[in-house]
From TrEMBL:
Keyword line: Hydrolase
Protein name as annotated: Glucosamine-6-phosphate deaminase
Keyword set includes Transferase: no
Molecular function (Gene Ontology), one example: glucosamine-6-phosphate deaminase activity
Shown chain mapped onto the complete sequence: 23 to 266 of 642
Species for this entry: Mariniflexile ostreae
């Protein structure tokens, strides 16, 4: 628990720095699982600063983003492709061929094969070394909404009402907000060697409490993380305020 989200974001960036550079010293690639949304923005800004001022290189990094709205044009202002380019990838030395973000332009019949390949690619690289997560007000991780199973795979999902309401401000209204998205499944998140879940503000305090202190349940997918062997919730005081 940190005093502020900015101190917490810096701590998360330090841990990513440690993992990337320790892999570099072994001449190995580093597989990062990345999230979008408002939560990791300060983290990505700190990683950009570390790249520019402390020489942190991303040349050995292979990234996999958690999710993308479907359908979605990659250059739309709403797309997670564009978000990641603007907040991180355009400012660091990651190789473009090492960036993976679910494709929001696929035809429906190609989605399932695409999702299987997304997972196979992660497996062929030895799995995710470090997974960054935010958390939805309903406890979703990625877009694994309430009801997602612990062994769920990468797939097309219907977004919850509460998720669409949360996103509707960005889309200029609920009716214009996408109904579906492609998300990595819970299984790949649980297989990551290390997980950092971040959450800021009082608005997340209820779901943080339920995820950490209540019984594991598929109604709150983040609660599955209670069974992960190396997970850290990096939260600010406000998000921690309901913990007992
Ligand atoms: C985004 C993602 C989502 C968000 C969550 C919190 O890639 O997977 O699970 O992390 O909806 O969003 P923010 O950070 O905007 O509160």
């Amino acid at each position: 628990v940190f005093e502020s989200s900015s101190a917490a974001s810096k701590a998360a960036a330090k841990e990513i720095f440690r993992v990337i550079t320790s892999k570099q010293s072994e001449h190995k690639h580093c597989v990062l699982g990345l999230a979008t949304g408002s939560t990791p923005k300060a983290l990505y800004a700190e990683l950009v600063r570390m790249h520019k001022e402390e020489g942190l290189s991303f040349k050995n990094v292979i990234s996999f983003n958690l999710d993308e709205y479907y359908p979605m044009e990659p250059d739309s202002i709403h797309s997670y492709h564009r978000f990641m380019n603007e907040v991180l990838f355009n400012h660091i030395d990651i190789l473009p061929e090492n960036v993976n973000i679910p494709d929001g332009l696929l035809s429906k019949e190609k989605i399932s094969e695409y999702c299987n390949n997304y997972e196979s690619k992660i497996e062929a690289l030895g799995g995710i070394d470090l997974q960054i997560l935010g958390i939805g007000g309903n406890g979703h991780i990625g877009f694994n909404e309430s009801g997602s199973l612990q062994n769920s795979k990468t797939r097309l999902v219907a977004l919850d009402h509460i998720t669409r309401v949360a996103a509707s401000g960005d889309f200029g209204g609920f009716d214009k907000t996408p109904r579906t998205a492609i998300t990595i499944g819970v299984k790949k998140i649980m297989e990551a060697k290390q997980v950092l879940l971040m959450a800021w503000g009082e608005g997340k305090s209820n779901i943080i409490k339920r995820s950490v202190e209540e019984t594991v349940s598929n109604q709150i997918p983040a609660s599955f993380l209670q069974e992960h062997h190396n997970v850290t919730f990096i939260i600010d005081k406000a998000a921690a305020s309901k913990l007992t």
